[in-house]
C-alpha cells in the first residue's frame, strides 16, 4: 500500500517547509539534505512507502537497526521537514512517488522546496536560480532569488514533485544551482543551503564543516554518483530546454 508512515505523532508541525533531498546532478539535493539532518540533529519522523521505490534495506556503521531507503526527518523547532534518500528514485517511478508524497504534504500544509543541479562549467561561486508556483514564487522574490536566464526542464522525481504540486494547488518552489555533472558538488550544495533553503525556511545552518570536508564528502558520495550515471538513473536534473528540441 502506497503511504507515508509517520512514526512520531507527538511532533507538532504547523505549515512546515519541506526540503527534497533526492540525489541528482552533483548530488546537490542529497548532500544538502544529509547536511541539514545531521547539523540540526533532526528526528526520523516518517518513512516513504510509495509505489516504485526500491524495496531495499539500509544499514549503518555501528548500528544494529536497519531502515528503509527513503525517509522524512523533522525539526519541530524550525518547522522543517527534510526528505533523505539513500537510493536514486527511478524516473519510471516519478509519477507515483510524486503523487504519494504531494498528497501527504498538502495535508500537512507544507511548502515544498525542490532542489536540483544544473550541469554547468562553473566560474567562481555557483549561481542559484529559483522557480515557483503560488505564494512560493513570492518567497523567491522576497529573498532575492532570481529566475533562470534560459528556458529549461527539471526532470525526474524532483520535476514530477513540482508538476504535481502545481496540478494540486500546492505552493512549491524549485531551487536550481549550477553544479558539476560528473562528480558530487558540496560547494553547490552549500550555495543552495545558504542562499536558498536557509533564508526561505528561516533556518541558520553552519556550512563551514561542509566546505572543509568537501573532499571527504565527494569521496563518500562518488560511488552513488557513479552508479546513477551508469544506470542512467539520475533522480533529478535541470537541463536547458534546447537539449530536448
Could you characterize the architecture of this molecule?
This protein is α/β, with parallel strands linked by helices. The protein has one domain (about 5-245): PAC-like subunit (Rossmann fold), CATH 3.40.50. It is built from seven helices and ten strands. The strands form two sheets. An eight-stranded mixed beta sheet has the order 1-3-4-5-2-6-9-7, with helices on both faces. The N and C termini lie far apart (about 40 Å).
CATH topology: Rossmann fold
Shape: globular
Number of distinct beta strands: 10
Structural class from helices and strands?
alpha/beta
CATH class: Alpha Beta
The ordered H/E elements are EEHEEEHEEHEHEHHHE
Strand content is: 15-25%
Query: Which architecture does the CATH hierarchy give at level 2?
Result: 3-Layer(aba) Sandwich
Can you say what the CATH homologous superfamily is?
PAC-like subunit
Taking the sheet with the most strands, its summary is: 8 strands, mixed
Instruction: List segments where confidence is low: pLDDT < 50 over at least 5 consecutive residues.
Output: none
Question: Assembly type of the shown chains?
Answer: single chain
- In whole angstroms, the N-to-C terminal distance is 38 Å
* Count of the separate structural domains: 1
User: For the largest beta sheet, what order do the strands appear in spatially?
Assistant: 1-3-4-5-2-6-9-7
Query: Count the helices. How many?
Result: 7
Helicity level, as a percent range? 25-40%
- Name the average pLDDT: 88
Radius of gyration: 16 Å
